[in-house]
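#onboarding

Welcome to the new folks! Below is a worked example of what a typical request in this channel looks like: someone posts a single protein sequence, and someone else replies with the predicted structure as tokens. Don't worry about understanding the tokens yet, we'll cover that in week two.

Example request:
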Amino acid sequence: MPVDLSFHYNCQDCRINSRLLQRRAGALLRECRIADHGLSILMVDDQEISWLNDHYRHKNGPTNVLSFPFADGADSSLSMLPVKELGDIVISVDTALREAKEFNQSLHDRLTWLITHGLLHLLGYDHELSDTDAIIMQDKEQELLTKLQHSRSTAMTHLAINVDHIATIRQARGGVEPDPVTAAAICEMAGATGIVVHLREDRRHIQDRDVRLLRQTVKTKLNLEMGANKEIISIALDLKPDMVTLVPEKRQELTTEGGLDVTSQKKMLAKTIDKMRKAGIPVSLFVDPDTRQIKAAHEIGATFVEIHTGRYCDATSEKSREQEFQTIAAIAEEAYQIGLRVYAGHGLSYQTTARIAALDTIEELSIGHAIIARAAFTGLDQAVRDMLAIVQEAGRIS
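Example response:
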């Protein structure tokens, strides 16, 4: 049965991913073997939960979570109904925000803990009965949260394919083959939900002709990566791709190295974003997983950020890779909470993609080199399908 999540709360400083919390609550019901029961979760402010706390528990002030079992005080005739209801969990988002800061958690992780705690109360656990009961409930909470942490999200992350390196092969001989426009069509037929190309100032791979034909032929979404220079801005305004991603660009680099320093280029980037906005083109900023860059991107009006995953992919030890992953996860949630849509990419391979794809706050991955490299052995259609299978599997509960 579905989890019903509703709000009596409006926060200007946070953004709550209700779909994520519903999925997590559903996973908890499955772990407790009560997936056939209904559960209602209500998000309120401190004022409302204070009233409930006083009215039902005779305690003053706000609390973090209250649970109301369906059977408590219910008419006995309700037991005859062909439905199974656990009851209601009421959570104060105000208190959750304070606790998240106190315990150095993300808001969604704190809300997940409160849902878990409230659910166990509905199931009869009560830490207030005795020290022994408190330990039993705490152990059960930890067990459920550990299982939830290691389960994969059911969110379907989108996969956009960067076909720049098809053009790189073409430019190596200066001919007309292989054609990135044809490659884009194969990627779409194989299941890609977007096509990405980088029109560089030096035109080392993608050419003007390519982006104009792609604008006419791409059926999903065309994302034009570009540096914020006058010539390319003019082309983008004329072309009107579905979106643009502003990236740093150096002539001497082999590929894009690191994210934009938005904090030091706010005025220039804001002007570019404003031009694109007036033309109806949403803008993404390619940034390192850094709080300062995320906040700056939001301040100057970006619609998206694409989080640079290079350090995670290039990590040489499990410890450093885990640290980089945790940084990406935290920054992605921070970006989501302040209202940005979140993409990720750079360096992702068939070995490193799954964990990033499983992050609920990341909407789309942009992957190019790994897929084109595999295509040399398997063909492009199969290479795309192989990567798509990894992304989709990461979206299923393990």
